[in-house]
Write a structure and sequence with these properties.
Two copies of one chain form a homodimer. Chain A has two domains: about 1-150, Jelly Rolls (Sandwich); about 155-235, Arc Repressor Mutant, subunit A, CATH 1.10.10.10. Helices cover about 50% and strands about 25% of the residues of chain A. Chain A contains nine helices and twelve strands. In chain A, α1 crosses α2, α4 crosses α5 and α7 (about 185-195) crosses α8. Chain A is elongated and about 55 Å long. Chains A and B meet through α3, α4 and α5 of A and α3, α4 and α5 of B. Chain B binds a DNA duplex (30 and 30 nucleotides) through α8. Chains A, B: One of its GO terms (molecular function) is DNA-binding transcription factor activity. Chains A, B: This is Crp/Fnr family transcriptional regulator. Chains A, B: InterPro entries: cNMP-bd_CS, cNMP-bd_dom, cNMP-bd_dom_sf, Env_Response_Regulators, HTH_CRP, RmlC-like_jellyroll, WH-like_DNA-bd_sf, WH_DNA-bd_sf. Chains A, B: Keywords: DNA-binding, Transcription, Transcription regulation.
DNA sequence: CGCCGTTTGTGAGCCGCGCCACAGCGCGCT
DNA sequence: AGCGCGCTGTGGCGCGGCTCACAAACGGCG
């Protein structure tokens, strides 16, 4: 009974997923039964840099941060994956070890697809392969841009851009402005951009005083998108 | 007569290329006749960030630098493509504008493959698609690592790593050590890592005094790989 | 050969920002 | 209520590395 329900859920999830929705019902069902669900508590490590990895995950519920650490313990958050998102494709596709850690930011359910299940479908369906290729290209553009920002821009611009990106990914329009529907400590915000927690604090307060943003119950609300754009593009 | 010779050359080039050598002779020949050659003088711009791009290039002769510029004129060199290498795949694959500039570092010949020619082959031959996917994964790993280095490491470590990478790509073993078979100004070296020319100069001289490297006729020779590794991995 | 644009070598000064120290604060847990 | 922990707010110090400024070497070219 529960087994049936779970399978039903998996079918549904795949049918709604941007990558897999275009498959034949037949194929999708085969994938759905083969895929396994996995649950992770808030803060749990899903995989770790260097692990052998031959699976990728789709986020069904919750959020996952992709990050890595320096030798002296600093953290860099490469991206945060929302419900509906995908991560871990790279190791699946090229068979090399994982390049970063994946950590559940909240109670999280994942659908895990193994290389052995996915590869046949990928060779049989070139359109799916192209979709994967697009995802990779997008990631590449994204990390290149991150690199450029890091090398070219000062802390304020970098952080403003990070807020804009967060706005795109997690923003809910509200009466006061764009509300970021995710709770991140100043520490975490700093790790997104490679800036110290203290600097984040100062910028946040400065911008709040200037009316660019507002803090509400620990959530950030972007009040003046234009001003934020100006900071993001200022100088270089 | 010349036309025949050029076609012959193109066939040969494709047959020797790591991506395309596994195709049927038939298919490869079709690609070869469709592909066009293009020549670029030293310093010529091949394409520019933001250009629409639906082709990728294989380097037949010479070298190409992939770079981008900040608003205030700083340059970042993302990578240097050797003879036999490939670039411009991303725009071809996802149809978006080019993400960076491509500039010929020397007299350079390219083989240009258009999207319209390549796509049919890609859908027909899943193994080729996988090869492309591997290339993308590799690029992604490379830029991620570049980003990590930039955020986690100080200038000396970063620059040491850059020298090691250059050694892998352009190193010719010689009596004195690993000789970098490429001439780059200190300016260019700086752009590879995001460090000012002056800093590069100081590091270069310091390491030369320490016997880690040696300058010979404008070329860098790595004499003590171990010492360079130590600098690359020191602290964070 | 002499001129000029480019590359190299080096020192002084400055500044952004990381690191440290510490003080309030909220929140969960017992 | 009381304790402790992780988060926030702020100020000061120090340092890495960028900027600026200039001198010297090094081609390439008329």
């Amino acid at each position: 009974m529960t087994a049936i329900r779970i399978n039903f859920d998996k079918d549904l999830v795949l049918a709604g997923h941007f990558l897999l929705k275009h498959l034949e019902r037949e194929e999708r069902h085969r994938l759905a039964t083969a895929a396994r669900l996995s649950h992770h508590a808030r803060g749990a490590m899903i995989f770790q840099k260097g692990d052998p990895g031959d699976s990728m995950m789709a986020v069904i519920r919750g959020r996952v941060k992709i990050c890595c650490h320096s030798m002296d313990g600093k953290e860099l958050v490469l991206s945060i994956i929302n419900k509906g998102g995908l991560f871990g494709e790279i190791a699946l596709l090229d068979g090399e070890p994982r390049t970063a850690d994946a950590v559940a930011l909240e109670e999280t359910d994942l659908l895990v697809l193994d290389r052995s299940q996915l590869m046949p479908v990928l060779t049989a369906r070139p359109d799916l392969a192209f979709r994967i290729i697009s995802v990779l290209c997008q990631r590449l553009r994204q990390t290149s841009e991150h690199l450029e920002d890091t090398l070219f821009l000062e802390a304020p611009s970098r952080f403003a851009r990070a807020l804009k990106r967060l706005g795109d990914a997690f923003g809910k329009p509200g009466p006061e402005g764009l509300r970021l529907d995710i709770k991140l400590s100043q520490q975490q915000l700093g790790c997104l951009v490679g800036v110290s927690r203290e600097s984040v604090n100062k910028l946040l307060n400065e911008w709040q005083r200037a009316g660019v943003i507002e803090m509400d119950a620990g959530y950030i609300v972007i009040r003046d998108t234009g001003a934020l754009d100006d900071i993001a593009d200022s100088c270089g």
